[in-house]
Hints:
- The protein is an alpha/beta fold and 343 residues long.
- The protein has two domains: 4-247, Aspartate Aminotransferase, domain 2 (3-Layer(aba) Sandwich), CATH 3.40.640; 252-341, Alpha-Beta Complex (Aspartate Aminotransferase, domain 1).
- Helix content is 36%, strand content 16%.
- It is built from 13 helices and eleven strands.
- The protein has helices at 4-7, 10-13, 21-24, 53-63, 77-87, 104-111, 129-134, 158-167, 221-230, 238-247, 251-273, 296-305, 330-342, and strands spanning 70-73, 94-99, 115-120, 140-146, 171-175, 197-202, 215-218, 278-281, 288-293, 311-312, 322-326.
- The strands form two sheets. A seven-stranded mixed beta sheet has the order 1-7-6-5-4-2-3, with helices on both faces. Strands 8-9-11-10 form a four-stranded antiparallel beta sheet, with helices on one face.
- Helix 6 (104-111) links the parallel strand 2 (94-99) and strand 3.
- Helix 5 (77-87) crosses helix 6 (104-111) and helix 11 (251-273) runs parallel beside helix 13.
- The longest helix is centred in the C-terminal third of the chain and has 23 residues, at 251-273.
- The radius of gyration is 22 Å and the shape is globular.
- The structure holds pyridoxal-5'-phosphate (PLP).
- Pyridoxal-5'-phosphate is lined by residues 75-77, 102, 146, 150, 175, 177, 202, 204-205, 210, 215.
Amino acid sequence: MINLEKLVRPNIWALKPYSCARDEFKGEASVYLDANENPYNGPYNRYPDPRQWALKDKIAKIKDVRRTQIMLGNGSDEPIDLVIRIFCEPGVDNVVGMEPSYGMYVVSADINNVAYKRVPLNDDFSIDPERMLKATDEHTKIIWCCSPNNPSGNLISKDALRKILTEFQGIVVIDEAYADFSSEPSWLNELDQYPNLVVLQTFSKAWGMASVRCGMAFASETIIDLFNKVKYPYNINILTQEFVSKQLDQTKLKQSWVNSILEQRPILAEELKKIAIVEKVYPSDANFILIKVKNANITYKFLVNEGIIVRNRNNILLCNDCLRITVGTPEENKLLIESLKRI
Ligand SMILES: *Cc1c(COP(=O)(O)O)cnc(C)c1O
């Protein structure tokens, strides 16, 4: 069993959070004179629900979790930062993360002056759970995992993650930003089994709302309470709450986008394999494909000149001469392939 009180920074455990007007009075009334709001310009004159219950009720239904197991943030960026600020004493504690993986984990750790220990994946981007566990010490509070992983695109073995969740006496974050594109069930199903598990998901990818900035963290009620203590009281504005809520009624539309991307993914992969300068096309469980080419820098610049932007991952561990390509519309994918044939 993990001892949450021992894991959390003492000042956060003891923190008395800001109590806003909307926290103090819950329910319906006809006259609101408690929050110094302007009585005109409704509905935007009112502070939004700090816990976003209407939106969380919908998410809870779709994801089959309790609404009290959800924290919403300004993109996944917010819970990534908050989980570090809740658990890691700057200059003292550290975190462990698989490499290569999503860049924000390192940036957030750096901003908070928390050491980030990078543990290389195997050459095929699979994880070595022993190596991850061995990298931890008595000051390691968090292990970062990302599945399907960015930039490699592969799912991380469930058995390996289960071993890490069981043997590590700290928080394990599993970032599932690309879960909608993968064939495996989500770790959300196992939240109640692992009190140290934090699952991240987002509306930025499959739901097509990257510009709206709304990310989700799922965890035990105790961990979600800590997020709620530390987050800005009104961190999700009413425009975002209402817009995301409206989009959640369009699950069929979202599924049609995901289906189209999943249909295009193997077609794009096959076409890429036929290109002379492409040396390897990595398997993908996400909405992007990592490829190794003869010279990534030259290929990247050539594509920029063609008006096509891909992600150059050349300077990243295990990704020498690799480009990360998002699966686009059939037309966009065709334009990319036609350009690559001309190089
Ligand atoms: C794109 C992505 C996210 C999403 O970040 P947002 O801040 O929610 O837009 C999170 N994690 C990974 C690994 C990603 O690639």
